[in-house]
Structures are given as structure tokens and as C-alpha cells.
Amino acid sequence: MNLKEIQQIRILFPETEETKRDHIATYEPNVILNNYFDIEEILEEVFTATQNLEESWNSVKINPNGGFTVLPTVETRSTMVGDLFVVCFKSKTNRGFLERTYQVANRGFKRIA
Known about the structure:
Layout: E1 6-13, E2 22-28, H1 39-49, E3 67-70, E4 84-90, E5 97-104, E6 109-111
Antiparallel strand pairs: 1-2, 1-4, 2-3, 4-5, 5-6
């Protein structure tokens, strides 16, 4: 897949006993200025940007070339092992997306779909 064709990355928290799986936010990179060399690089940036360190991450952007749309009804805890990043590429038919799903692992990310 061409990394310049990434349209968005959806962040999902997995289902727990208290909650169902939830779409938390969407990151939209600037496809023109996208200079990522591999998928791990952009996933690592999204993971790092979605940590609540000194303030809630929903008020922080990765960089001026892209940003987050946070769903208004959800808590924005830090991303952690088990969370899902759905990478959405531009489809060849321009209808919908080609999706690849990655799960945050103990170290790095594991492609699961």
C-alpha cells in the first residue's frame, strides 16, 4: 500500500465488561505532506500523540500537517495495549476505504485484519 494514500486512522478502544468496542477518534494526515516511510512510523506517532501526559491528548495535534477529530461523547484515556488502529487507504474505486487493522501490542503493533 502507498502510505500517501492513507486517508485516516480510526482509533478504537476494545470491548470490556463495562463498555462495548468504541470508536474514539479519527486522525487525518495531510496526504500531500505525508513523509512516512513505513506503517509502523505513523502508528507510533499516533500512539505517542494519544497519551495523556500533561493534558488530555484530544487537545494536542501530532503536527500541523494533520489532526484529530475526537468523538464528543467519549472519554479520551491514553491508548494502550489491546487498542485498535484502523488504517484507511484510498480505494481504487473511490468508494469507501481499503482497511488494515492493527492492534497495539506489548511492543509495536500487530496486524490483525
